[in-house]
Design a protein that fits this description.
seven-stranded parallel beta sheet; 8 helices
Length: 244
């Protein structure tokens, strides 16, 4: 039996409309799972859905920062064997320019939506025993940079949350782990150019010992954590693409 197989598993992927979330959904489907994808943009969710391998997949349009929509989405889920929380936004703001609205926006998307989604899933008994939760963090949680205070803060908070989650869910053999990618060539990284200079971005490329990653590199690591190959791993954070 292949311990990396996801056959007979049902997996939720948030933020599946583009980037790492989209590739994660595609790769998970290729490994045999039934995939439920969510995102805010119907057209992009349709594009992801069309790329999935196999049958029995579902798509749900949901703004995870809207608690009413989030609760409705969770209530409509089947029983899950795993979930990937890939929805997030990246924004570089020097500390002296941070406003309350920036804090609310970034933390609501990157941190609060995950916490509230998991809480609702557990209350509604949507997560089966022996399941695996994978939270998408970032090397920014540890390798800080100018303008990254809020983004880094959300990812550090996510890792701390994941470790506590791992402890609380261990009796049910439900695992929680984080994946921390370095820079990956996605629309989010392309958009970074709007908030930092090309010089800074080039410097990050120079710091990349193995170069910038591809979304499939992250997706493969996510598959590992969802699979039975990692059934003895919980509360961990896997760094991808750089040396910390």
């Amino acid at each position: 039996m292949n311990p990396f197989s996801l056959e007979e598993k049902t997996i939720l992927v948030t933020g599946a409309s583009s980037g790492i979330g989209r590739q994660a959904a595609i790769t998970i489907s290729e490994m045999g799972a039934k995939v439920i994808i969510t995102g805010r943009n119907p057209e992009r969710i349709d594009e992801t859905f069309a790329k999935l391998t196999g049958t029995g997949h579902l798509k749900m349009i949901c703004d995870l920062t809207d608690e009413t929509q989030l609760n409705s989405m969770v209530d409509g889920l089947p029983i899950l064997n795993g979930a990937v929380f890939a929805a997030g936004i990246g924004r570089h703001i020097p500390v002296k320019f941070i406003r309350q609205s920036d804090i609310t926006s970034i933390f609501k998307t990157n941190y609060e939506s995950v916490v509230l989604a998991v809480s609702r899933m557990l209350k509604k008994k949507k997560i089966a025993d022996h399941s695996s939760l994978v939270l998408l963090s970032s090397t920014s949680s540890r390798l800080n940079h100018f303008g990254g205070a809020l983004y880094s803060g959300t990812k550090a908070a996510l890792e701390a949350y994941s470790k506590n989650l791992a402890i609380e869910l261990a009796p049910k053999r439900i695992r929680s782990n984080c994946v921390l990618p370095w820079f990956v060539d996605t629309p989010m990284v392309e958009g970074v150019g709007n908030t930092i200079t090309q010089e800074v971005l080039d410097r990050f490329r120079e710091m990349s010992y193995l170069g910038f990653g591809d979304p499939v590199d992250v997706a493969n690591s996510i598959v590992f954590f969802l699979s039975d190959a990692s059934k003895w791993i919980t509360g961990s954070s896997l760094v991808l693409g750089t040396v910390l």
